[in-house]
Amino acid sequence: MKHPSGNTALDTVDGLVKLGLRDRWYALCRSDEVRRGALTRLERAGEELLLWRDAAGTVHVQEDRCPHRGARLSRGVHMGDRIACEYHGVQLDAEGVVVSVPGSPGCALEGKKRLRTFPAVEQADAIFAWFGDPEDGAPAPFVLPEGIGGEWESFLAYVEWDAPWVYSLDNLMDPMHGAFLHRKSHTMAGGKREAVFQIRDTDTGFVFEKIDQAGVNFDWSEWIDTAMQWVRLEIPYPATAGPGGPFRIVCTATPINETQHAAFFWRCRKVQGWERDAWRFLYKARLEARHWAVLEQDRVMEEAMPLNAWDRENLYQHDLALVRLRRLIRGEAQKQLAAREERAAAGRRVNA
């Protein structure tokens, strides 16, 4: 059974590993990238998307493909509560229903849902969409992990890197690289350069942590899968960096295609009242540039790695989390393709 996007890579296990599992929420972009009255085209998780806001400002995510002749809707016209294809004027609403065919009023297309539409939410300064398989299945609840919202204050850093998305997952689930690649950072200069790790299972994933050092450096990472894939970690902060205790980072990555990805880093601290104001000032005035410098080190390292880096690895104890995570993703990809084929077989039996 072929994927509805027409991208044949999504019909293989390797393709789902490289382009992202289905039945997951993915972060698409920063909220401010989708302006009112504009049509925004994005490629995410191997799919070509159109993002736009209706007259009330609500964001919508749809396939960037007119159901008439396949023209790019992102080259069309924003009409407030609907969009129009520039090629032949076909108009569609936020549910993907063809509401007007100006060139042939009353034709069979009118009134029919013909545009693939993705459930979307907008929270924490970002836009997220549900990539379902089957496409008309109900989305899982969207859940932000602890560290974003509530008592936590956060800033979102967004990047697009020329490297496979799994390289960022590996990087985030590898605490040991902090003591080497980031050893000159103001927060990761301390601690030992050797460590022993353990994996601790949780209800939503697992924690990979040093057993002989805590609260000194980048000492643990947590993989979270709640129908959206997150990584959470903490870096100790001195009092000179402001109130709020340890500096928490909540991250997610979204494939753009097989060789590029987008990554989202919420830098978080548990602060309220005057402490919130103090930390926000300190962050913008002193800390943000340092954090971008750390991300730049990661970018340079990931983009320089060959696309076949996994094929010639020699992993050791520090890499246990990478092995666990890769097996989880590949195993889920296999299950999703088997379920898709089972649905196709059931459909064939019904139609026989």
From TrEMBL:
Question: Any keyword Amino-acid biosynthesis?
Answer: no
Q: Which residue numbers delimit the Rieske domain?
A: 25-129
Q: Which domain of life is it from?
A: Bacteria
**Signal sequence span per UniProt?**
none
Write the record's keywords in alphabetical order, separated by commas.
2Fe-2S, Dioxygenase, Iron, Iron-sulfur, Metal-binding, Oxidoreductase
Which SUPFAM superfamilies is this protein grouped with?
Bet v1-like, ISP domain
Parts of the chain that traverse the membrane? none
Q: Which Pfam families match?
A: Rieske, VanA_C
Which molecular-function annotations from GO does this UniProt entry contain? dioxygenase activity
Spell out the PANTHER family in the cross-references: 3-KETOSTEROID-9-ALPHA-MONOOXYGENASE, OXYGENASE COMPONENT, IRON-SULFUR DOMAIN CONTAINING PROTEIN
Q: Output this protein's name.
A: Aromatic ring-hydroxylating dioxygenase subunit alpha
